[in-house]
Amino acid sequence: xxxxxxxxxxxxxxxxxxxxxxxxxxxxxxxxxxxxxxxxxxxxxxxxxxxxxxxxxxxxxxxxxxxxxxxxxxxxxxxxxxxxxxxxxxxxxxxxxxxxxxxxxxxxxxxxxxxxxxxxxxxxxxxxxxxxxxxxxxxxxxxxxxxxxxxxxxxxxxxxxxxxxxxxxxxxxxxxxxxxxxxxxxxxxxxxxxxxxxxxxxxxxxxxxxxxxxxxxxxxxxxxxxxxxxxxxxxxxxxxxxxxxxxxxxxxxxxxxxxxxxxxxxxxxxxxxxxxxxxxxxxxxxxxxxxxxxxxxxxxxxxxxxxxxxxxxxxxxxxxxxxxxxxxxxxxxxxxxxxxxxxxxxxxxxxxxxxxxxxxxxxxxxxxxxxxxxxxxxxxxxxxxxxxxxxxxxxxxxxxxxxxxxxxxxxxxxxxxxxxxxxxxxxxxxxxxxxxxxxxxxxxxxxx
Length: 448
Fold this sequence. Notes:
Blueprint: H1 2-6, H2 9-70, H3 79-89, E1 98-102, E2 107-110, H4 132-141, E3 145-153, E4 158-169, E5 174-181, H5 183-279, H6 284-309, H7 312-316, H8 319-332, E6 337-343, H9 351-372, E7 376-383, E8 389-395, H10 402-407, H11 413-425, E9 428-433, E10 439-445
Parallel strand pairs: 6-7
Antiparallel strand pairs: 1-2, 1-5, 3-4, 4-5, 7-8, 8-10, 9-10
């Protein structure tokens, strides 16, 4: 929370624009990865099922061919030896061969492992503890079928998974079968899995590239916006600084004129009266009276200048009295009627609130007097029951385009000054105006 609070508004906006993009891309990446993994698993299963179906059909055809070869020899004397010799000569590839066992598990023919001839392998078990020959004989007695088991591969002399198809030859008490090793399909499946992983990795890289591009695009946009706003802010600050300097110079010039034309001349006249009274004792009383009158006038002029700089009523009687006095001065100038209305029960306000609201009202009344061409201007100071405060200034003048005034650096400085004063208090300033529709300025300050 502290880090978030420390971020600037632009930083927060940048994060608010960036985080949904990254979250969306992350969700897309997860969804794509899940879908591709599911598709790869389905493809793996379909390829394996298709391969196994093809191998089963192939094995059954081989065994059917072998059975059709030995059937004519079933009734012949010595037919078993002839059949074994024929079967031992049949093969299909380096690892494709036939085998014959009796139903007790003794090896009668094995073209690739002749050393097994005559051995009884009934108790032979694979590394997982499963009885290999018993499974094959059981399936043959059951009418024939497929059995998956482990067997030594002739070409590599290593144990490999094998799919066998066996049938029984009951006339001779044989189990006849053949099989295909499955390590080739496992290698194919591994290649498919590797290809799927590569596709998923490529997709993730594309998603990452899109994320990087999106971040770069947002960063570039934020940078361009920041530079544009920075230039605009600099232009406004320069214009505001010129306005402040010009305002100071105008105020100094006005004070200089007031002091020279009013206070200075009155003091000179008083000095001359006092000198004349000293030189002509006969008329001293009359000259002293005139001098006192001039001094009183000068004092009033000084008080007027002091009040123009900061009204004493603001510090002594508070904001309502200062606003009424301010509106009275504008109203006395003639041309436009200015009025003040105080609503609600008055409460004590801090010096910062008094000063800011008074300056906002002073700026608004000055703008209304100079530019609005209004016939009536009303000022309402409302003390709300919840402790809040509202200052409303409304006129029936010609109005203006507030957005156009704010968009130009050297215009709308008074409005920006009022907004800055309101923001410094934590107040909300709203302006309702349009060309030909008058102007309504509202400053609302919530209860502390």
